[in-house]
Amino acid sequence: xxxxxxxxxxxxxxxxxxxxxxxxxxxxxxxxxxxxxxxxxxxxxxxxxxxxxxxxxxxxxxxxxxxxxxxxxxxxxxxxxxxxxxxxxxxxxxxxxxxxxxxxxxxxxxxxxxxxxxxxxxxxxxxxxxxxxxxxxxxxxxxxxxxxxxxxxxxxxxxxxxxxxxxxxxxxxxxxxxxxxxxxxxxxxxxxxxxxxxxxxxxxxxxxxxxxxxxxxxxxxxxxxxxxxxxxxxxxxxxxxxxxxxxxxxxxxxxxxxxxxxxxxxxxxxxxxx
Amino acid sequence: xxxxxxxxxxxxxxxxxxxxxxxxxxxxxxxxxxxxxxxxxxxxxxxxxxxxxxxxxxxxxxxxxxxxxxxxxxxxxxxxxxxxxxxxxxxxxxxxxxxxxxxxxxxxxxxxxxxxxxxxxxxxxxxxxxxxxxxxxxxxxxxxxxxxxxxxxxxxxxxxxxxxxxxxxxxxxxxxxxxxxxxxxxxxxxxxxxxxxxxxxxxxxxxxxxxxxxxxxxxxxxxxxxxxxxxxxxxxxxxxxxxxxxxxxxxxxxxxxxxxxxxxxxxxxxxxxxxxxxxx
Lengths: 274, 280
Known about the structure:
The structure holds two protein chains of two kinds. Chain A is mostly helical. Chain A has helices at about 10-35, 35-55, 60-80, 85-105, 110-120, 130-155, 160-165, 170-190, 195-200, 200-210, 215-240, 245-255, 260-265. Chain A has one domain: ABC transporter involved in vitamin B12 uptake, BtuC, CATH 1.10.3470. The mean pLDDT of chain A is about 85. Chain B has two domains: about 30-55 and about 65-75 and about 160-280, Rossmann fold (3-Layer(aba) Sandwich), CATH 3.40.50; about 75-155, no CATH class. Chain B has nine helices and twelve strands. Chain B has a six-stranded mixed sheet with strand order 5-6-7-3-8-9, with helices on both faces. Chain B is globular.
């Protein structure tokens, strides 16, 4: 471990992965709770088109990624295509975004490296400047999530009752998808757009199976995401596998573990409410 | 005192007038059964009362004022209920998520909030079952939690949109008795939407029957009658009383039982106007 952290690029990778994991885990909990996992996946593909488009015009891919996911998130929220039963519409947008990204890459010269980094992440190449940006965005979106979390939870659990009680469903759908867009862009920076599910949905889905309490679930999702991201980096360092693969592997293992009866046994002793 | 007044009220959904020039008043402390054929405007009337739908003409007075969204004096069980993601949460968290849910901030309850959740759960006899995840509860148990949610915020008027749907007769009786008990203990006014009058017979004070754009409000004996229902349904209706129960027939078919079947079809994207009523 000491040897691994002697390298600056590993320290940077741990810092970036840590920031991203906590943000994605917490935002992801609400995403899974609302049944919008697929919408999160689609946002990352919109980000791919944005990043390749930005690269084509000589702009920062991260800025393009962020702009595209944010725009797509706001658009999906405003148009109401974010609901769980809009699979086909979301899937078509997703496919078109990926195709568009493909087109931009076609005109872009250093094709392969950029494409691979965007699609599968390149956390070992993260710079200190990028880390500062990730930290700012991560802290900002978590702060925003904290501010809207109560009405967001209400709107997620009981939309019609929330509406009757004066909560604007549309407003919170849009605000939340904007946060998902930022979290997606952050996660794409670590594991790439194709593997965003790994940090955004995997830990949250496992947390929802392991605890039936919202506050515990949000914290657990962040802890699991962090463990998967850091564990994945250590595993990648040891095995020389790609970091994204190692993180994905751990995410899938944790998700599978959450489905074992083991989990049911562990929660049998029961929690007490205060 | 009248807690709810409809004055020359006309309500429309998607350009179709479902209620026309309705005038009636509901007094504080009443238990009203709200019935009527599919698409007759039951849910629409509740939505207008909640301030979610503006009247086309006339006005509604709730506690003497115009309806407004977020009126804390009204508690409700909506017709469409909860999202699939919530099934993993405990009943406790499901109810706790409603407390001051319209305010910004973290969904962490202070002592007052926790006390309110506990007292609502106790009131509906769901304190023990609230530890279990929603997905493991029966329909009747879930209805108790929905009632607990409706009681959060200390409402004085409860609007319950078909709390008996998909429940076995035994659980139907249980829920009606529970609502009646809660209503009496807390001195609430209740509007209880149902497809069938029989489960409500022992509990309700008056029945509000909608149909053909019109409304009839009064004791069961005055409203559930052959002439009144024939007018509301727009076809000849026969009302038969048998062993303390009431059956409504049209040309030999039991209408209220039919209504259930139509409801199922509407749920699967059925063709009739009923769907507007629910999802508008």
